[in-house]
């Protein structure tokens, strides 16, 4: 199960990297990120529960040992307390994910503003280079046209 999950995540991240290289839509990237986070959360949750048998199911070995020792099985209140504890863990994990996503949104917004400033600066540089190119073209024409006129007049008047 872990190998399959790792393979799925690796392929999704690889696809995400390829899409980033081809200027993928920013919302699509966010959606893939959320899907990966949710997949990781969903697949890690049963693993954590599996470490604690008896939470979602009664461990038959433990039940047989308790019967042999004369202990009673957990009551309904104890089982509900366990389930409530697990729900608190899930809530805590979701709250942590919300704060992480909020932090990522802040970072993305900061990067977006920085990129906008950089792109604005590049556009200014491009416009400056374009103006310089037009000026150089005018000077070139200003030198070539009188030179051709001079050569043509010299040819016409020397015959």
Quick structural summary:
The chain is mostly helical and 159 residues long. 87% of the residues lie in helices and 0% in strands.
Describe the fold and architecture:
There is one protein chain. With 159 residues, the chain is mostly helical. α1 runs antiparallel to α2. The longest helix has 83 residues. About 3% of the residues have low confidence.
Q: Return the string of H and E elements.
A: HHHH
* Inertia-based shape: rod-shaped
Instruction: Specify Rg, calculated over alpha carbons.
Output: 35 Å
Count of beta strands: 0
Distance between the termini: 96 Å
Can you give the helix content as a percent range? over 70%
In DSSP terms (H or I, runs of 4 or more residues), the helix count works out at 4
Helix/strand-derived class? mainly alpha
Oligomerization category of the chains in this entry: single chain
Topology (SSEs and partners):
Blueprint lengths: L1 H20 L4 H25 L9 H10 L6 H83 L1
Helix pairs in contact: 1-2
Keywords:
mainly alpha; 4 helices
